[in-house]
Write a structure and sequence with these properties.
Blueprint lengths: L2 H8 L1 H4 L10 H6 L4 H25 L8 H23 L1 H12 L5 H11 L4 H33 L7 H36 L1
Helix pairs in contact: 4-5, 4-6, 4-7, 4-8, 5-6, 5-7
């Protein structure tokens, strides 16, 4: 793994943020970002499954026949989700009551299956681990930030509108616009700086 490849993979959670850029996993993102605790908790559960499914799938990639690789990925992911469900239901019953149904849906979350198909199934364990951590942290950060903004707006305005699905979509759309505008500006500045350095050299 070269330095450039490491950097690209490690920054994947920002440059290809699963929520603000790739727009994946919208159902749980909207449904459980109504407050910061639910958002962060679901983000952590999803990241755990993403990281370990990436590692396991990468380690087994040469042993899984191409014809059955998708069902095999789903079995691995579902097994990890079952483990998370057992832990949450046993030790965090209040959290289980709040987000329990959406933990089960992690099995079919496009973010996890997408990374398994696009990255872990084609790369070695270490890059897959880095990809899982990066994308997992990116998801935690984005859904938690969304939850914080929605909760803050509800408290500031004294209205429950932003708890609802429509309010969630509006806030998400605005945050996506801001994120992509800022990221585009940063990329443009980087290009200008690179061009300036090259001219000086």
């Amino acid at each position: 793994m070269t330095k450039d490849e490491f950097k690209k993979t490690a920054l994947g959670g920002i440059t290809n943020n699963p929520v603000f850029v790739l727009v994946l996993g919208m159902c749980p993102t909207i449904a459980k970002s109504d407050n910061i605790i639910n958002a962060f908790s679901l983000g952590v559960c999803t990241a755990f499954v993403l990281i370990f499914s990436n590692v396991i799938i990468s380690a087994l990639r040469k042993l899984i026949p191409d014809k059955v690789h998708l069902p095999a990925y789903i079995i691995i992911i579902a097994s990890l989700v079952t483990f998370v469900q057992m832990v949450v239901s046993s030790f965090l019953p209040d959290l289980n009551d709040s987000i329990g149904a959406f933990i089960a849906l992690i099995t079919v979350n496009c973010i996890i299956l997408g990374r398994a198909e696009a990255f872990a199934g084609k790369n070695k364990v270490l890059p897959s681990l880095i990809d899982g951590v990066s994308m997992g942290l990116g998801f935690i950060a984005s859904i938690t930030l969304l939850g914080a903004v929605r909760q803050g707006l509800c408290a500031a305005l004294g209205s429950g509108f932003f708890d609802k699905t429509m309010g969630g979509f509006i806030v998400l759309g605005l945050m996506m616009a801001v994120f992509n505008a800022v990221y585009s500006h940063v990329r443009e500045r980087q290009k200008q700086n690179t061009a300036l350095i090259e001219r000086e050299v």
